[in-house]
Amino acid sequence: MLSTLRNSLLYYDHMAWYYLNTRWHNALGDMIIPFLRNPWFWAPLYLFLAIYMPRRFGKNGWIWCAAFIITFAISDQISASLLKPLFGRIRPCNDPYFSGIVHLIVPCGGGKSFPSSHAANHFSLALFSAMSLGHIARWVWALALIWAVGVSYAQVYVGVHFPLDVFCGGMLGASIGWCTGKVFNNQWKLA
Fold it and tell me: I need a labelling partner for 86 at 20 to 30 A (CA). Which of 39, 59, 60, 189 fits?
């Protein structure tokens, strides 16, 4: 029973990957989407937050910046150092079964695939930001979630993750961001 469920889940995961990575791509997407997963593409946003938050909220803004970094560190350590070695799933771009069909746009990397650290990290930061800033500006929720979904989708599009990797990474990150956002709001809620 459990084996059948696992096989069924992997079948649908591979089918979704097949369409998202090999069928639903075009030249414009191939040019733009890799930027979504590149940390340097988001560096201006991080720099803006590092300047804006302390200027706007003073001491609590500095604490917010520290909590933002701590949220990232927790998510990254759990996904990359704990769960990836535990599950050991091979990336689609390294899997011999998919090597002939993968639409690889970026270097594959040698690390493991499950869960996606990009998805975990960006969903943790998105939920933390939305939880801690959403009461001030409701639009932060939509923007933060679109940002995290875009980065996660890019991981599948470029060929380095399966959809299940990014879904589970996103759920992990969202849980972490929700928890750190809740702790932050209980101690230093921004006004």
Answer: 39
